Amino acid sequence: MKKAWKWIIGIAVVAVIAGLGFYQFGGHSNQQKTVTIGSYGPDTQVWEYIAKLPETKKAGINLQVKDFSDGVSLNKATIQGQVDVNAFQMESYLKYFNEHSNKGKLAILGTTYLEPMGIYSRQYKSVKEIPNGATIAISNNPANTSRSLKLLQSAGLITLKGEPKAGLYSLQNVGENRKDLKFQEVDDHTGPRLLQDKNVAAVLIGNTMALQSHLNVKKDAIYHEKLDQSTKGNINVIATAEKNKNKPEYKKLVKLYHSKAAQRYIEKKFSGTKIDVDKPVSYFDN
């Protein structure tokens, strides 16, 4: 009987040791890798939701979400390692940031969505109705200034000339301007408030600010961006410090963002104003 118990105990000990070895050396480990992602505005809510998904736990990720008030400090925090990954910016903004950063560079892990920028007006129902000499408010953020000008060109209100500097157009690139439109550059937060200003015919507003002002770009804008080659620089991305771009746990966030559960939440929460874009990083090379 004593020998039998010794055998049972011995087998149990071996089983426990084998099990530990299995988990430690390539089995289904229940160890979670902590990844900190920084975001701001409505995107923070998206990542807080993703952090709670069973899919995230199954991927072995313990996702911590930090909310920031602006993109510059978030990019710097990513380079300095205060956050591992960030998700808030367009590809064109990331490129502009890298051009002007002497503290380090960011790399794209993957794409997330296109939030169409819209032309909004409380006075006019179409861009054709905007009168000669009218004032148009556009963002003073360099990336959004360029985006605004390209949207105005797409709407047929202006044409752009010359090459964009560091990939971005400025007011100096405005060529043909048949309606002699005047441009008022304002910060992104001010734009929505100018819809009440009768001296401003139309305002170009990015979707983050539009959502915060209870505007739906598909319903309330008189004209908005479409997803095509001309707007690929406006696609939002997940980014990390250049040295971390090959970390597999960071790359998993791209798949988690495009998971069915996450996309159902985003569609419902934002009424279809975040158009899902799942493209390889090489998409921006063309």
The overall pLDDT average reads: 90
Annotation field: number of helices: 10
Total beta strand runs = 12
> Regarding CATH, which class of the largest domain?
Alpha Beta
The 3D shape can be described as globular
Secondary-structure element string: HEHHEHEHEEEEHEEHHEEHHE
Strands side by side in the biggest sheet: 2-1-3-11-4
Helices and strands: which structural class? alpha/beta
> Structurally, how many domains make up the residues?
2
**Radius of gyration in whole Å, from Cα?**
24 Å
CATH topology of the largest domain: D-Maltodextrin-Binding Protein, domain 2
Instruction: Give the uncertain stretches in residue-range form.
Output: 12-29
- CATH homologous superfamily label of the largest domain: Periplasmic binding protein-like II
Question: Summed up, what is this model?
Answer:
The protein is α/β, with parallel strands linked by helices and 286 residues long.
Can you tag this structure with a few keywords?
286 residues, D-Maltodextrin-Binding Protein, domain 2, 2 domains, 5-stranded mixed β-sheet, palmitate, MetQ/NlpA family ABC transporter substrate-binding protein, membrane
Task: Provide a descriptive summary of the structure in words.
It is found in: Membrane. This is MetQ/NlpA family ABC transporter substrate-binding protein. The chain is an alpha/beta fold and 286 residues long. The protein folds into two domains: 31-114 and 233-285, 3-Layer(aba) Sandwich (D-Maltodextrin-Binding Protein, domain 2); 118-225, D-Maltodextrin-Binding Protein, domain 2. The protein contains ten helices and twelve strands. It has helices spanning 2-24, 42-52, 54-58, 71-80, 91-100, 142-154, 207-212, 217-220, 248-257, 260-269, and strands spanning 33-39, 61-67, 85-90, 106-111, 113-114, 118-120, 135-139, 182-186, 202-205, 223-224, 236-241, 275-276. The strands form three sheets. A five-stranded mixed β-sheet has the order 2-1-3-11-4, sandwiched between helices. A five-stranded mixed β-sheet has the order 8-7-9-6-10. The chain has a two-stranded antiparallel sheet with strand order 5-12. Mean pLDDT is 90; it is low at 12-29.
